[in-house]
Amino acid sequence: xxxILFGPPAAGKGTQAKRLVVAHNxxxxxxxxxLRAAIASGSELGQKVKSIIDTGGLVSDDIVIDxxxxxxxxxxxxxxxxxxxxxxxxAQAEALDAMLAERDSTIDIVVRLKVDDNALVERIEKRFAExxxxxxxxxxxxxxxxxxxxxxxxxxxxxATQGKLVEVDGMGSVEEVSARIEAALSEHVS
Length: 190
Ligand code: B4P
Description:
The chain is of the alpha/beta class. The chain has nine helices and five strands, in the order βαβαααβαβαααβα. α2 packs across α3 and α4 runs parallel beside α5.
């Protein structure tokens, strides 16, 4: 199974991806985690993307598509990929479809986590307090949300017309959201 976790910044994609890894033996492909690891390592890539991430912008399509291309074979070999924070643009979605088609594979389901704007802000503030992530400040968050609305939300009709989009209520506790995702997978993925 290949699954996309879709939703605005701080909707809980990373949180739920980690639970799906445990429940289904799948591999989480988080472009955000990969980019943060590159920054932490001080690599050339990390230096290139740091200011973009800190200010809430989207990293270029080429960079994130390359990251996914590198990590996809191992994820599929291990039982399937959970795409967390990718794709975020139409170009990324088309590249992903092409990559999977080359491997005679496809996306099975796109789970959209729906969370109120107020709850998103509360989650960002909580994470900033707990982890101090450099892009969780109010200014960057505004830019991230605007990028989501302008460039990522237009992917919803792309997946809806393919019959792959399933909406899940992302409000409530982590466990409640997780139970809803599992119910959606049981219903929609054979
Ligand atoms: P990401 O790392 O993808 O960050 P995110 O969207 O903010 O987080 P996520 O939805 O995973 O939230 P989480 O589970 O952590 O991206 C960071 C940046 O990297 C982007 O802004 C961009 O610059 C760059 N980037 C990444 N991918 C890219 C791409 N494809 N193209 C271009 N650029 C890219 O949850 C958030 C908080 O809420 C946590 O503290 C969590 O504990 C809490 N939480 C989760 N579920 C909860 C619940 N049910 N109740 C209460 N709290 C909850």
